[in-house]
Amino acid sequence: xxxxxxxxxxxxxxxxxxxxxxxxxxxxxxxxxxxxxxxxxxxxxxxxxxxxxxxxxxxxxxxxxxxxxxxxxxxxxxxxxxxxxxxxxxxxxxxxxxxxxxxxxxxxxxxxxxxxxxxxxxxxxxxxxxxxxxxxxxxxxxxxxxxxxxxxxxxxxxxxxxxxxxxxxxxxxxxxxxxxxxxxxxxxxxxxxx
Length: 194
Known about the structure:
Blueprint: H1 9-23, H2 26-37, H3 53-69, H4 75-98, H5 104-137, H6 142-162, H7 164-193
Helix pairs in contact: 1-2, 1-4, 1-5, 1-6, 1-7, 2-3, 2-6, 4-5, 5-7, 6-7
């Protein structure tokens, strides 16, 4: 059975997958690759390579390496620096890959602005949370944050495939909560200094 998304659903699917790349760059691409390889997710012609065994293996290795690296103190903060532009690119790619029924100009505009944009926002929010966690817990809370990001990435990627609009709602709620938390922590640290 192939997922059949009509109308705006491919855009919602792409944006949901893009948001998941903001948590972990390679895991949502692995999920998408597995769905395409198994015949459950149609990809655009130029992105058929994502559904090949080679892509599945490459993305699997990259996802495992990325997941493990986020549990190494110091490396996690370095990865956030590298992951921000990588998430933008990955978000653009996954969005463009699943939008199969729009003209190329509209497809790529949507992929760059919506897909890359939401991936960048999600990655920025998680990087900001990790920076605050490192500052306030000396890095001790970062493993918990890494686990939450891993779970969030997998949940959003799978939910985007099953219910794209629900995935978007969860992403919006997460971003709202993350920015409120960062604002609260920042205000709290400013009042304790003054």
